[in-house]
Design a protein that fits this description.
It contains two helices and 26 strands. It has helices at residues 189-193, 195-199; strands spanning 5-6, 11-14, 18-20, 25-27, 31-34, 38-39, 43-45, 50-51, 56-57, 61-63, 68-69, 74-75, 80-81, 86-87, 92-93, 98-99, 104-105, 110-111, 129-130, 135-136, 141-142, 147-148, 153-154, 159-160, 168-171, 176-180. The chain has a single domain, classed as UDP N-Acetylglucosamine Acyltransferase, domain 1 (3 Solenoid). By secondary structure, the chain is mainly beta. It is globular.
Length: 201
Amino acid sequence: MTRLLEARGELTYLSQEGVLRDCGIQIGKNIRLRSGTIIYPDVVIGDNFTTGHNVLIREYTAIGNDVLVGTNSVIEGHCEIGDRVIIQTGVCIVSHTNIDDGAFLGPGVVTTNSRHMNYRSGDPLEGCHIKMGARIGANATLLPGVVIGVEALVGAGAVVTRDVPDGAVFVGNPARPLASLVRMEVFSEVQMYGEGMANST
């Protein structure tokens, strides 16, 4: 039986890349797992990955380089997370969610994937797609299938029921456009890593 990887000490530090053969987990270099972190089999993680305490990462998830997952966050199975993604405390990322490079999810963000909240209905699960450099404020909720555009911003507490265009600012319940975001170089993933990368996702 394939085992889980569970960090039991205060800090588990994995400095060598490779495959944890007993767990079926492929990891990069310089991995820091704080106590209570559990990683299921069939997970691929890049370099410089860090968790807070009590993080859960389910099977068939791929995580890029330089990613931070905060305390008490859950990443369900069949997710893809790019490079330089920051996931803060208490975030719920449901299955079939895609998060592109440089995205930021504030504390308590919730993604959803079931329109009728009934797994027995047979409806396909529709995860969200958070594109390159997008920022999601604390306690925002993203409904199934929504796409958050490149470098868009979703305000704290927003309930997003429809797609957010590139560079837009959406706030409220239901979330509505407030303005177009002025891109500042210090925050811009596109400025730092190129427009081509954003358009390729």
